[in-house]
Amino acid sequence: MNNNNKNLSEKINLIYRILFNSLGHQYWWPGDSAFEVCVGAILTQNTNWQNVKKAIDNLKNNGLLTAKGLYALDISMLAEFIRPAGYYNIKSKRLKSFLSFLCEEFSCDIDEMFSLESETLRKKLLDVKGIGPETADSIMLYAGNHLQFVVDAYTYRILLRHDIIHEDAGYDDIKELFQQNLPGEINVYNECHALIVNIGKNYCKKTNPICDKCPLKNI
DNA sequence: TGCCAGGCCGGGT
DNA sequence: ACCCGGCATGGC
């Protein structure tokens, strides 16, 4: 291992350690069931979680937050229920394509879906229209306890601002950076991504490039 | 008020 | 293989 890699490895571990020591457990993903996490992962695409929560509560309050319930629900009605989450027409389609996958290949049984081997499951999820790399990894890690690190826009922005990546780094580049340097534990992946989102929302906004209070300011 | 939020797809180069 | 417009609500 050369010096560059060693520095990189230390920085990645430092980020995790500093964030965990300053912010502690994040208790992710919010949700009462694995299925709810999957729905939330699709609804939160490019969307504030507050809005997603309203949409999920709508479904929950109407007893529709089950695979069979949503699979049977008319798509235009589904769109109305999830309206607060934004992009409601496209997201209703995306939810439906996931539900077709779940219900037609796994009898609406999410445990059966997650019993697939990781590499196989990830490929299948990426074939579902509306599920890209971040959504697939979120579903796998937070709903299914598969060891997949989740990368998002905050991760990219934070690493870029600290000169840990080049601006042309892609999703898989960044994912590998964490997976090759962090301990390979579900709990570490879980907390690390959640901590990055926390810090991103609070200290690394687009319009607020520098923040003295950011725990990562000295790395 | 305008900008942003825990992306992804499809069409055009 | 990239690049970009479109998708839409609610909060600060």
Molecular structure report:
The chain is mainly α. The chain has two domains: 3-27 and 151-203; 34-143, Hypothetical protein, domain 2 (Endonuclease III, domain 1). The chain has twelve helices and no strands. Helix 2 (34-43) runs antiparallel to helix 9, helix 5 (75-81) crosses helix 6 and helix 10 (153-161) crosses helix 12. The radius of gyration is 18 Å and the shape is globular. The mean pLDDT is 95. The structure holds a DNA duplex (13 and 12 nucleotides).
Overall 3D form: globular
Based on CA atoms alone, the radius of gyration comes out at 18 Å
Count of helices? Answer: 12
Arithmetic mean pLDDT: 95
What is the CATH superfamily label of the largest domain? Hypothetical protein, domain 2
Helix content bin: 55-70%
Low-confidence spans: none
How many distinct domains?
2
Structural class: mainly alpha
Total strand segments: 0
The CATH topology of the largest domain corresponds to Endonuclease III, domain 1
Name of the level-1 CATH class of the largest domain: Mainly Alpha
End-to-end C-alpha gap: 21 Å
Element order: H for helix, E for strand: HHHHHHHHHHHH
Gross CATH architecture of the largest domain: Orthogonal Bundle
Give a brief outline of the structure.
With 219 residues, this protein is mostly helical.
Which descriptors apply to this entry?
mainly alpha; 63% helix; 12 helices; 219 residues; DNA-binding; Endonuclease III, domain 1
Describe the secondary structure blueprint for this structure.
Elements: H1 3-23, H2 34-43, H3 49-61, H4 67-72, H5 75-81, H6 88-106, H7 110-114, H8 118-127, H9 133-143, H10 153-161, H11 171-179, H12 186-203
Helix pairs in contact: 1-12, 2-3, 2-9, 5-6, 8-9, 10-12
This protein binds a DNA duplex (13 and 12 nucleotides) through helix 2, helix 3, helix 6, helix 9 and helix 10.
